[in-house]
Amino acid sequence: MDNQNINMGNQSEYIPVQNAYQPASYQEGSYTENAYRGNAYVPAQTQSTHTVDSVVSELKKQKGIMIAALIINALLLMAFAGITTVMFIRLDMVTEEMAADLADCEESICKQGRTVSAISNGMESVVDYINDEYSYNDPYYDPYVDYDYDPYYDQYPAAEKPVIYIYPENETDVEVRLRLNEGEMLCTYPDPETDGDEFVWNMHALPDGTLYDADGTEYSYLFWEASCYADPDFSRGFCVKGEDTAEFLRTTLADIGLTPEEYNEFIVYWLPRMQDNEYNLISFQTDNYDESCPLEVTASDGEVADVLRVMMAWQAADEYVEIEPQSFDGFERTGFSVVEWGGEEVK
Length: 347
Known about the structure:
By secondary structure, the protein is an alpha+beta fold. It has three domains: 1-45, no CATH class; 53-148; 158-345, no CATH class. Helices cover 33% and strands 25% of the residues. It has six helices and 15 strands. It has helices spanning 52-120, 126-133, 152-155, 245-256, 260-274, 287-292; strands at 14-17, 40-43, 160-167, 172-179, 185-189, 193-195, 198-205, 211-212, 218-219, 222-226, 238-241, 279-285, 295-299, 306-317, 337-345. The strands form three sheets. A seven-stranded mixed β-sheet has the order 5-10-3-15-14-12-11. A hairpin with a 5-residue loop joins strand 7 and strand 8. The radius of gyration is 52 Å and the shape is elongated. It starts with 13 loop residues before the first strand and ends with a strand. The relative contact order is 0.11. Mean pLDDT is 78; it is low at 1-15, 17-22, 24-38 and 113-156.
């Protein structure tokens, strides 16, 4: 071992190898110039250890994986919630569409039933069909079923606000009798007595039109409203622009025989519904109205009043309609006079 400089280092770091031949090119540890078979020391294999940095790095890696997994899960949950919300919204839309389609279908079936009924009943004009179009609001109405209720109740429009003015020559008691041959009474003021199918008011009347009941309560007129009175007749009448309706009514009602007080009350009641239409088809009813609800007013001395009845049927129109105009004879107020006015909108 002369001249051999072997750095033994710490003896505990080496393990003895007996009679081991270690080629210089593969020998670990310090370099030896001559290799020989005999006793020698070879450095021990370094034990595998984990440093603090490697542990921290590994934890960071695992943390990153967990965060990524949480983010992915959150995105999946958001996507699921979004899809579920869209499905519920779409379900609501489909439900509404189905309900609308069902309503349209029911309306179509109802109209078809009314058309068949109109044809089978021999209706001869479009006006007849229009009047019948709203005959039954119940979509399940069967035109071939004989229902217990009066068909006129729904088939024709209500007579709105007929009012009765009474002008005797002298202060007197009067009896007013109104009979409904069609429909039923909806409202009255003051309340009349009933005598079979007639409605009877017993009032005390002054020449200026003031009325008193048995209790001394004062009224300007009698009011009544029924479910219907007759099928409106539009064979003659007028087609008037909506914006010209006020002037038309003022002139025409004066020609028929209403006083300014009477026709002004008429106009302010109906004008708000009529003035914004493109056109109004107007017809003043005559014999058909008298036949459906006869009216008679008698004074205590037996004198029967002359009665002027003004019942206007009207319908909104989108364009001008050719119609034969009506003419009026006027009304002379001589002696005991009664004036009634009312109207109905045909839709």
